[in-house]
Design a protein that fits this description.
Radius of gyration: 18 Å
CATH architecture: Alpha-Beta Barrel
Distance between the termini: 27 Å
Strand order of the largest sheet: 1-2-3-4-5-6-7-8
Shape: globular
Number of strands: 8
Order of helices and strands: EHEHEHEHEHHEHEHEHHHH
Number of domains: 1
Structural class: alpha/beta
CATH topology: TIM Barrel
Largest sheet: 8 strands, parallel, barrel
Helix content: 40-55%
CATH superfamily: Aldolase class I
Number of helices: 12
């Protein structure tokens, strides 16, 4: 599988009592498919998988697969502390019709590169689907190092990596030394740099509510090679990216952004709390300013 384009890690909309808001889920999927995203990810961090039971996670796979109905690829996250649980999620994802898996480092355990590789290989054997690796040391405490990548690079299923370290040196290393593992941007405020180094995909939570802007940057850089237009779009997006990457209320901000599109994604599950009134006001202003700025860039939007 070739990962190309914008891949949205789907939110899980909730009612006030934290039960699934099925209508809002369907509306979000329709918004994304209609806007032209290239794939939808279930059970990413943005989907709050860590706050769901195993049954809820598997139910989400089945529900979203039916909502997508084959119109775009569905990628399913297998994140868990125990390898055995990740294997269960991988098998359930395949049964639900997933096109690929997102495989992250098990959190808290602090595994070595070899141990991460053995974990990922166990997931691979369980499902035999294309895999996008997910390197996020800010949450998992460790990098998928060269030992890990060397071991996994021998299997053709490990065909991409969502790189969320924020370390430019890792970006350079991956592009130079591991060209067989496709780069996917996982650090929103470095999207321009990723595209300059050959990335062909971007996993971006902000595309839940602003798919048009994210697609515009992808199209400018990855498809048209117009980095002058790309820099203009990126400049317009940077205030939003700073809020999302550095603001500390990530999931809450994504859900509020959807509310500005008329979709009530509800509160985050505890221990997270909704945005304050002031934070909502500031985020709405940032999003509005971004949209106006991008609309004024020649050729940015269809």
């Amino acid at each position: 599988m070739r990962f190309e384009g914008i891949y949205t890690p789907l939110v899980t909309p909730y009612h006030a009592d934290f039960t699934l808001n099925e209508d809002a889920l369907a509306e979000t999927v329709e918004l994304l498919v209609g806007a032209g995203v290239h794939g939808i990810i279930v059970a990413g961090t943005t989907g709050e998988y860590y706050a769901q039971t195993g049954d809820e996670r598997i139910d989400m796979m089945d529900r979203v697969a039916k909502l997508i109905a084959g119109r775009v690829p569905m990628i399913v996250g297998t994140g868990a502390i125990r390898t055995e649980d990740s294997v269960i999620y991988a098998q359930a994802a395949k049964a639900a019709g997933a096109d690929a898996l997102l495989v992250a480092t098990p959190p808290y355990a602090y595994p070595t590169g070899r141990e991460i590789a053995l974990h990922a290989l166990a997931v691979d054997r369980a499902a035999n689907l294309p895999v996008m690796l997910y390197n996020y040391p800010g949450r998992m405490s460790v990098n998928m190092d060269e030992d890990c990548l060397d071991r996994l690079g021998r299997s053709p299923n490990f065909c991409a990596i969502k790189e969320s370290s924020g370390d430019p040196n890792r970006l350079h290393m991956l592009a130079r030394d591991y060209p067989h593992i496709a780069l996917s941007c996982g650090m929103d405020d470095q999207a321009l740099e990723f595209f300059a180094w050959g990335a062909r995909s971007w996993v971006c939570a902000g595309s839940n509510f602003a798919p048009e802007a994210h697609i515009a940057l992808y199209r400018a850089c990855a498809l048209d090679g117009d980095f002058a237009r790309g820099r203009a779009i990126m400049s317009a997006m940077l205030p939003l990216m700073r809020v999302l990457e550095q603001g500390g209320a990530f999931v809450q901000s994504i859900k509020f952004g959807l509310s500005l599109r008329g979709i009530d994604a509800g509160p985050p599950r505890r221990p997270l709390q909704p945005l304050t009134k002031e934070a909502r006001r500031e985020l709405a202003e940032v999003i509005g300013t971004m949209n106006r700025a991008i609309a004024a860039i020649p050729g940015a939007l269809p």
